[in-house]
Automatic annotation (TrEMBL):
Protein source organism: Flavobacterium hankyongi
The protein's name in its UniProt record: Molecular chaperone HtpG
Source superkingdom: Bacteria
Keyword terms: ATP-binding, Chaperone, Nucleotide-binding
Listed Pfam families: HATPase_c_3, HSP90
Amino acid sequence: MTTGKINVSVENIFPLIKKFLYSDHEIFLRELVSNATDATLKLKHLTSIGEAKVEYGNPIIEIKNDKEGKKLHIIDQGLGMTADEIEKYINQVAFSGAEEFLEKYKDSAKDSGIIGHFGLGFYSAFMVAHKVEIISKSFKDEPAAHWTCDGSPEFTLEPHSKTERGTEIILHIADDSLEFLEDFKIRELLTKYNKFMPVPIKFGTKQEALPKPEDAPEDYKTEYKEVDNIINNPNPTWTKQPADLNDEDYKNFYRELYPMSFDEPLFNIHLNVDYPFNLTGILYFPKLGDNIQIQKDKISLYQNQVYVTDNVEGIVPEFLMMLKGVVDSPDIPLNVSRSYLQADGNVKKISNYITRKVSDKLKSLFTENRVDFEQKWNDIKVVLEYGMLSEPKFYEKAGSFVLYPTTDGKYFTLEELKEAIKDTQTDKNGKLVVLYASNKEGQHSYIDIATAKGYQVLLLDSPIVSHVIQKLEADNENLTFSRVDADHIDKLIAKEETQISKLSDEEKEKLKNSLEGIVPKETYTVQLEAMESSAAPFIITQPEFMRRMKEMSATSGGGMFGMGNFPEMYNLVVNSNSDLASTILKTEDKSIQEDLVKQALDLAKLSQGLLRGEELTAFVKRGFETLK
């Protein structure tokens, strides 16, 4: 038996490992299963090139739980280690790395996103164990070795009687970590971190139903056999070639990833690139609707099928963080930190590649089946609009597939829309005016007025549409967007012809004074406009600029231009050519005049969805009284 001291100058390194290197103790199992997987796959490679003269077979990794003995076993059938290799890899290499790490990061070691670079994965075992044993038999014709360490720099290394190839790690679980001896906890960790590891992982056994014999009697009872409980899928869908998969394969994998999700994904994007970096994965577009916050941390990052994190910020472009799926890249270290991601050039390339791949997929979906793409538009528009705002490379490509739906169910690209409205919606200054509504029902009367004139009205109702509009106006000369209720229609798209007012200047002044004495001035600005006599007598509008700034402020933190708490202000546009305007002007009885104005104002508010609560109750009561 050999005894010795681990070559390290720090007197007791294990408390430091426990304190600094891992903020999350549970990843010890990920690290140890990853090591077992590496040992198995290395053996596979050596046998394939003839360097290991052994049968590879069908190796598995087994996790055994000995709750009574307070021990956890991780057993593999990989290439194993000789005593000399244990001496080298466990006692020297890892600890020289440990020294270097602790020296470099002794003041800020909690930000330990580079642990993997120092070969310290094995020592994560000491976060949960007070003693660790390694029993290993190499594929080489050498005796097995048994290494033991109790968490101090002292270790023992002696021969062992193990005859089967591979390594067994035995963790003697410390009293403060007994939760890791619970079956449900182990299963939870294996499912979280090792669900798609490339080597089968056994944890216990399960009962599996035997096929029913063809000649089984009517009272046949299903028979069961005990089989290994393999908790992982070693060949997940993203590792296969897209040409070998169909729609059902992708949907089945989505259900495997999200067993509690009842929605089918709209479509998927298979990532598969091996130059200039290695990246595979599948991204799914779920049904998002208008909720920009519904998704976060639904894309999992893997490294060679080992789970790393659900925080893929920096790797996946921000606008695609609302998607679901998997990204796998061996070019990203297992213990990834945010600062590493921000600094790494490969990561930026990966992000750019994903943006390009998503753009190309959307373009092909649009081109190949436009009708289907239009039907899915409302469920994906928020992601695409956010992409236009946040990713210049995506914005460049978006023009060929981003859609602008109308209130009557047509869909245009921006170029198609410009062509469709240029003859009718160009104003007297040569500006193309795009009319839109944000609420088809709430702004119905305004939409009705605009469509009666032959105008197209878009339905733009996502929460970030004001930002999108602002960007489109900035990038398209002589193009402006106006919501249909921002002014009366003849002002929104001003033509050369003007309506002649039936009222004289003096009458208009008198009417305006009367109205301003009745209409609440803290909310409404009264404007008299000469319109067609058949147009609505009272119209409430909200200035486009003010409303848009408030909306943009609401979706960008609420503080922009100090408009978050700005009171709602509206214009009350009164048609001076309407019969009602003439009636109000000629009514001498102030109380009757006031009733007329209030009723007309309430009707205008009703059409804008602004009549609520006490005011609505009073309006309904007045209406019933007139029916008596």
